[in-house]
Amino acid sequence: MVSLNTMVLNVLNNTAITLCIINIYHVRPARGHDLHHILCHEPDDTIPTTLVSDFNTHSPMWSLPGYTPSSWAITFTDWMGANSF
């Protein structure tokens, strides 16, 4: 996964990855979103992974009432669900 606004930290025990931390700051472009790199990523389900971020995204899952959901919110929340986040 490659992006100027993404950092992946793998915590090792000897040479085995015991935890993966993915941190993303989503800089919204003028149109759409710039989360394509994460939406194409499938984390290894055998490695505990934490996703932390400022996604700059409105979704009914976490936004206050009255905010219009971002056009990519459903795609993003579906990806999170499919990857157990």
Quick structural summary:
The chain is α+β, with helices and mostly antiparallel strands and 85 residues long. It is built from two helices and three strands; from the N terminus they run E-E-H-E-H. The protein has one domain.
Blueprint of the fold:
Blueprint: E1 6-13, E2 16-25, H1 36-39, E3 49-54, H2 73-82
Parallel strand pairs: 2-3
Antiparallel strand pairs: 1-2
Radius of gyration: 14 Å
**Low-confidence blocks of residues:** none
Q: Fraction of residues in helices?
A: 10-25%
Average pLDDT score: 92
Q: Kindly state the number of beta strands.
A: 3
The computed structural class is alpha+beta
Distance between the termini: 17 Å
Number of domains: 1
Question: How does this model look, in words?
Answer:
The protein is an alpha+beta fold and 85 residues long. It has one domain. The chain is 16% helix and 28% strand. The protein is built from two helices and three strands. Strands 1-2-3 form a three-stranded mixed β-sheet, with no helix packed on it. A hairpin with a 2-residue loop joins strand 1 and strand 2. The two termini are 17 Å apart.
